[in-house]
Amino acid sequence: MNRIILCILCFIAFTLSIYGQQNESKLVVVNGKKIAYKTFNIENRKNGDPILVFESGVGGGSFEQILPFLPKNITGFEYDRNGLGNSEIDTTIKTDAQVVQRLHKLLTTLTIKPPYLLVGHSLGGPFIRLFASKYPNETCGLVFIDPTDFMLTAEENDYVKKLTSSLTGYREIWTINLKTMSNDTSMPLGVRYETKRELSASMPEYFQEYQNLPQLKNIPITVIISYNKPIQPYEEKMNKTLNLSINILPWWKALDDIRIKHYGDMISNNKNSKMILLPGYSHGVQYQDPLLVASEVTNIFSKCSSIENKQNYR
Predict the structure, then answer these.
(1) What pLDDT does 7 receive?
(2) CA nearest neighbour of 263 among 105, 143, 104
(3) Is the pTM of this model over 0.85?
């Protein structure tokens, strides 16, 4: 069994190496700042075909590990937000709405037309939800990979603290983590700026830009959520060092129960949509199980590619 796993991992590493050699990042100037991006199979894209648009979590991240498992007919687009990777910092971007607008401007600058199938991990989840609200007629589908719960209310936050006899809630932890990363001089400057920007955008109200978003258009959606995650050493260290007094296991369980309800309610009126719960998985699901994520992306891509759906974007 170990040899089989090793062979699979070697195959993936080899495939990604070839992919990286053949598909180096390119740069384009948008609003006076360089942005790095990659595309794959885009030369084979036909008019009306959906295209994957990937949105990473805070500080960036990669989706390339799932690419070897995607069918060859799927086209996609990856990019580094301003300040991340090889993209230049843009201090004029202050809000999440401006992050989303910059992505849209990037796509139009490159003449990458809709429909867009957005795939977001962690904080990328809220970003693609915001994108879909601002550009509903250009968004054909969404895939959320262990998304941040931007819907967590102050009352729910207090309920979790009381239920689990914890002194600190997730909304406070969100602020603490962003503040810590923005002040960490070992972090790349662009990451520090992004976390500082996100901290400012989250003040004084947690995810204030996401209040009263319009209901999602009836598009296919998959939400992948990992829960009952193993406790990480850094969580225990942070809990102790900062005197957070969090009962970590019941605390996370209560928060995940609320997050599952929030995202379940969000997609309740969307046909061809589903939620996948992964007990014991880590936050980086696309790294832990790239085949599973690729399968779900392929599934939503197929639904976006239906004749009825494609006619809306010709």
Answers:
(1) 35
(2) 143
(3) yes
